[in-house]
Amino acid sequence: MQTQNIKQEAHRLLDNLPDAATWDDLMYRIYVRQAIEAGIKDSDADRTVDVKEVRKQFGLPA
Fold first, then answer.
1. CA separation for the pair 25, 16 (Å, rounded)
2. CB-based contacts of 14, cutoff 8 Å, min separation 6
3. Sequence-ordered strand ranges (E) for the chain
4. DSSP label of 49
5. Which of 6, 13, 47, 56 would suit a FRET pair with 27, their CA atoms being 20 to 30 Å apart?
6. Cβ contact 17:26 at 8 Å
7. Residue 18 CB: number of other CB atoms within 10 A?
8. Could you give the CA distance from residue 13 to residue 25 in angstroms, rounded to a whole number?
9. Residue 33 CA: distances (Å) to CA of 3, 14, 18, 37
């Protein structure tokens, strides 16, 4: 994500927080956003494993 987009997204995150939000609330939202973006990036780069394969590796039913 480009710097300007990060700043815009940070402003959006702040604007959508409730007035009684804590630093932990903000950090959680930043973490979730970052995790989602990392997952999308991994998916776009074909660095994912099908859930059926993961379940098989852990001996879970499909």
1. 11
2. 26
3. none
4. -
5. 47
6. yes
7. 7
8. 10
9. 15, 13, 17, 6
Look up residue 4 and give its two tokens.
């300007």
Q: Can you tell me the distance from the alpha carbon of 29 to that of 61, in angstroms, rounded to the nearest whole number?
A: 33
59: its two tokens: 């001996």
Tracing tokens 């852990």 back to the chain, one arrives at: 58
Tokens of 20: 């009684």
Answer whether 0.90 is exceeded by the pTM.
no
Q: Where are the domains of the chain?
A: 3-57
pLDDT digits (tens, 9 = 90+) for 3-59: 778 899 999 999 999 999 999 999 999 999 999 999 999 999 999 999 999 999 999
Q: In the structure encoding, which two tokens stand for residue 54, read together?
A: 């993961």
Residue 44 tokens read as 């776009």
User: What does the block give as tokens for 14?
Assistant: 């702040």
